Amino acid sequence: MKGALTTVPIYKEWDIVGARQSGRNMAKDLGFSTVDQARIATAISELARNIYLYAGQGEVSFEEVQGDTPVGLKIIAKDNGPGIDQISKVLEDGYSTSGGLGAGLPGVKRLMDDFDIVSNENGTTVTVVMWLR
Amino acid sequence: MNPEYQDILLAHSNDIIHRWMNELEDSKLKEYKSTISDEMIEQVNREFVNMIFDKLKNDSSRESIEQFSERIVNLGWPLGYLTGGMQSFRSICIRTLIEKIDRHDPETFLQVMDDVNQWVDPIKNELIDAYSSNWSNIISLQKVALQELSAPLIPVMDGVTIMPLVGTIDTDRAKLIMENLLDGVIKNRADVVLIDITGVPVVDTMVAHHIIQAAEAVRLIGATCILVGIRPEIAQTIVNLGIDLDKFPTKSTLKRGFEKALEMTDRQVIKTNDHDDKVVDDIIQSIDKE
């Protein structure tokens, strides 16, 4: 289990549900509380939906990580889509190019402990971690 | 098919069936064997091979192939059983023919192969077609069943309607929810609609967005939406996501939401057996006096 990497490809809308379930199961196995499981599931939902909506296809990976605190769950959402033009803009509340609420990425940033985003014309990778408290 | 070959195959059909059954014994159906009885496998194998031979004698219809495929689907056996079975059947037939025919020039060999392929391949294709269309039938039936369960609207009393939502909300379902909600509000002349999300596992920005839009649409046609069944962890994630739900009332449980709905429609629940309580109280008091 330690260091195990699970990857869920995202092609269809229902893959979002699949990614969410494997993430939630992994969070449960690692001992996260119900509230944290809900946060993790919601964050995965947002990231996977961004892949589905804006890049068409990509993948979400889950990894157990060791750090200062005992253990954490790392989620990597990766796509080869067109990339994000203004990263600072998408991290602001209420900014959306698709008529949505514009709360997705800033919301994920608040839901999780660590947040990192890399985006260029070759695609976007969002890496988030939640530590077990 | 060359009548000569056909006669050989039919004459040796018992031998072919025997060899084929033995070969299937060792096939990958073994992985499933723990759950399937040997008699069952034997019986289905026999049906399978009889069907192929019927086709050679030209007295089998497309229907029998469809029925057989349906049977395999219902048994839950893999498609590999059909394709694997056909492949080994093909090689056994070719081997039998080559053994029985005296000529061994490449020309004859190719002819035998062509003839057997022409016989076996259409059956294989029909089987696969029937198998996959059976599956897609099942899936589309389930889709319809799911859609029927998707967004029910329940009128509980004049002017108050409840929509309980259970399970994941995707784009299609969100559309259905909106349509049913608006239709139902007008049809039932509802003043208040309670949307219960107790059974929705994750509320992300998309789900929230759809709920907000639905509530706004309900407001436009003159009714009020109350969002109920917000579990504590969902409340936390909604706050973290920064979603603004203050355009309409929200309650933790359906019960509280219903009370609010009664209040909004100027009603209240009154106990009808107050009289009985009073009689009991009188008796108790009279006992106390003694």
UniProtKB/TrEMBL annotation, chain A:
<feature type="domain" description="Histidine kinase/HSP90-like ATPase">
    <location>
        <begin position="35"/>
        <end position="133"/>
    </location>
</feature>
<protein>
    <submittedName>
        <fullName>Serine/threonine-protein kinase RsbT</fullName>
    </submittedName>
</protein>
<dbReference type="InterPro" id="IPR003594">
    <property type="entry name" value="HATPase_dom"/>
</dbReference>
<keyword id="KW-0418">Kinase</keyword>
<dbReference type="InterPro" id="IPR036890">
    <property type="entry name" value="HATPase_C_sf"/>
</dbReference>
<dbReference type="Pfam" id="PF02518">
    <property type="entry name" value="HATPase_c"/>
</dbReference>
<dbReference type="GO" id="GO:0016301">
    <property type="term" value="F:kinase activity"/>
</dbReference>
<keyword id="KW-0808">Transferase</keyword>
Automatic annotation (TrEMBL), chain B:
<protein>
    <submittedName>
        <fullName>RsbT co-antagonist protein RsbR</fullName>
    </submittedName>
</protein>
<dbReference type="InterPro" id="IPR014792">
    <property type="entry name" value="RsbRA_N"/>
</dbReference>
<dbReference type="InterPro" id="IPR012292">
    <property type="entry name" value="Globin/Proto"/>
</dbReference>
<dbReference type="InterPro" id="IPR051932">
    <property type="entry name" value="Bact_StressResp_Reg"/>
</dbReference>
<dbReference type="InterPro" id="IPR036513">
    <property type="entry name" value="STAS_dom_sf"/>
</dbReference>
<dbReference type="GO" id="GO:0019825">
    <property type="term" value="F:oxygen binding"/>
</dbReference>
<dbReference type="Pfam" id="PF01740">
    <property type="entry name" value="STAS"/>
</dbReference>
<feature type="domain" description="STAS">
    <location>
        <begin position="150"/>
        <end position="261"/>
    </location>
</feature>
<dbReference type="InterPro" id="IPR002645">
    <property type="entry name" value="STAS_dom"/>
</dbReference>
<dbReference type="Pfam" id="PF08678">
    <property type="entry name" value="Rsbr_N"/>
</dbReference>
<keyword id="KW-0597">Phosphoprotein</keyword>
<dbReference type="GO" id="GO:0020037">
    <property type="term" value="F:heme binding"/>
</dbReference>
